[in-house]
Design goal:
Blueprint: H1 7-22, H2 27-42, H3 69-79, E1 114-118, H4 128-132, E2 138-144, E3 158-159, E4 168-174, H5 184-188, E5 202-206, H6 211-223, H7 237-240, H8 259-269, E6 273-277, H9 281-286, E7 304-307, H10 313-337, H11 339-342, H12 344-352, H13 358-376, H14 381-389, E8 397-403, H15 404-410, H16 412-419, E9 426-431, E10 434-435, E11 441-442, H17 466-471, E12 477-481, H18 487-499, E13 504-509, H19 519-532, E14 539-541, H20 543-547, E15 553-555, H21 564-568, H22 572-580, H23 582-607
Parallel strand pairs: 6-7, 6-8, 8-9, 9-13, 12-13
Antiparallel strand pairs: 1-5, 2-4, 3-4, 10-11, 12-14, 14-15
Helix pairs in contact: 1-2, 8-18, 10-14, 10-16, 12-13, 13-14, 22-23
Bound molecules: thiamine diphosphate and iron/sulfur cluster (2 copies).
Length: 610
Amino acid sequence: LSGVLPRDEAIKAIKKSIEKTYMKKGQALVDKNFAAVDASLAHLHEIKITDKPTSKFKRLPGVPETAPEVVKKVAGKILEGKGEELKVSDFGWTADGTWPTATTQYEKRCIASDIPVWDPETCIQCGKCAMVCPHAAIRAKVATNEDLKKAPAGFKSAAFKGKEFTDSAFIIQVAPEDCTGCSLCTHACPAKNKADPEKKAINMQPIAAHLEQEKTNFDFFLSLPDVDRTKIEKKLVKNVQLLRPLFEFSGSCAGCGETPYVKLLTQLFGDRLMIANATGCSSIYGGNLPTTPYAKDANGRGPAWSNSLFEDAAEFGLGMRLSIDFQKNYAHQLIKDLESEVGGDLTNAILTASQTNDAEIQEQRARVEALKAKLASMNSEAAKTLNGLADYFVEKSVWTLGGDGWAYDIGYGGLDHVLYSGKNVNILVMDTGVYSNTGGQQSKATPIGASAKFAVAGKSLPRKDLGMIAMSSENVYVAQVALGANDAQVIKAMVEAESFNGPSLIIAYSHCIAQGFEIGEQGLDHQKAAVEAGFWPLYRFDPRRVREGKPGLQLDSKAPSKAMADYMANETRFQIVKKTNPERYENLVKFAQEQVEERRKLYEHLAEEK
Ligand SMILES: Cc1ncc(C[n+]2csc(CCOP(=O)(O)OP(=O)(O)O)c2C)c(N)n1
Ligand code: SF4
Ligand code: SF4
């Protein structure tokens, strides 16, 4: 076009460069790029530049009119690409750097070409679609038949199949403008349509025919009351998925394997969550200003979240724990000092409350409200201070989140320190096997035989066994989980970790674009294959069991039923090595297989009843 090179010569050079860049990733990728070049050329046509704009379309505002003022004024402007027009004084409301949460809901990116469409008749109400969605863009709810009388025409629901809710209906609802079209949900759906076995209970369909109806439906869905948390037993996926996610519409890749774990944490522990985030994908999609995916419940409460550095996240989380404990102890001392005015019964009830489930938490909240009502009529400095600290009587759930680059490598010293602190801090490592956010550098979690930056020829050493190191401290709850292989085990591990009054570590297999396959189509299958090959054994180690004289370790996955060679055959990270050096690859596969078998023997030994 520019005329710098003759057209044919330029196209030849472009294709040569494509070959050079992508050939090591396979001919298929090269061909796709060639096809893109050819299609671009076939569709090239000149557009005459006119003096004045001729378009009849107007750009939509960055955020809708319904967004809060501050979101419109700041986030909206930035999303419109006009951030440079903002003045320092426009940020006066956040002198301390805090940022409003629950604002990704105003982005409405509408990037999916296809969205899942629900068939209530075929649905078995398992909640698996909602569980795996990385963006909380497909949700489950129960609503009373009374509430559904106000539903718009075309709103779908089905009679609720369980015993927990009577005279109620079950709903699966997509957020059409927030869905990324990744299709993970349809792959997770186990229900087949008997009349048409090609179809499931949710099926991807072009968005155009459904957008307006589903927008109306989603608005109505949101207006329906959230399920009462105290009625949900946190065991089965179908129950847990009725809980409102407080992490939604993040900017992670479509089909991301990390975000479903974060979303699940917010469903399980709700507004009591305090998150210290290591730098990495989870800090970027977790706090990718100008919008924030951490959201609020109907009471306007939600998780508190912050990112400090890449290397200090474990210490950051420990700091949160220590400061909470300090404030709580101070509140404890103050309420004791004021006991005669507050009342002995209330003081005692607050200080001795059990807070092991949502019903007990709700009771404690009611006590704290009663305390605040009493404090409001008291004038002493101590009463005012206690009023500011009273919320600390409700237990918080402290979690440090990060990737394997943080946990296995750069932040490992701090992680080790926290694991030996004895403090009630939970750690969730979302293990993609590489430093994903910075382009796929190897970490100590990178598997044998995988090609990654700084290990391009294929990693020749085994992964660090972080779980085993943590178990050896004997006072850490440890679990290894994979949502695509056993979703109920993930819930169990998170609930057990949270209930353990000491450090907990959960290592979560997270599929990722860096591993080299279509993550939306195949992410869950790859997780399953990793477990079946024994590469990713599922387990839970609970120090409370050791104290009861039982083996601390419980294996949640069976002995390998698949060869490592088969697991490795389907991911580009391994196949690049095969392509460039088949002999080396064969040796690495053999080594990987030996490693898996050795580790399995060790785990089985540790899990044995003596
Ligand atoms: C001390 C330090 N080194 C390097 C970086 C750059 N950096 C930011 S995120 C990241 C990779 C994170 O990888 P991982 O912990 O595996 O998380 P993921 O992105 O895979 O979720 C790196 C290297 C940094 N911020 N600080
Ligand atoms: S297609 Fe992907 S983003 Fe959309 S609802 Fe399904 S899992 Fe969520
Ligand atoms: S790079 Fe990987 S971990 Fe990061 S957002 Fe994308 S899929 Fe998720």
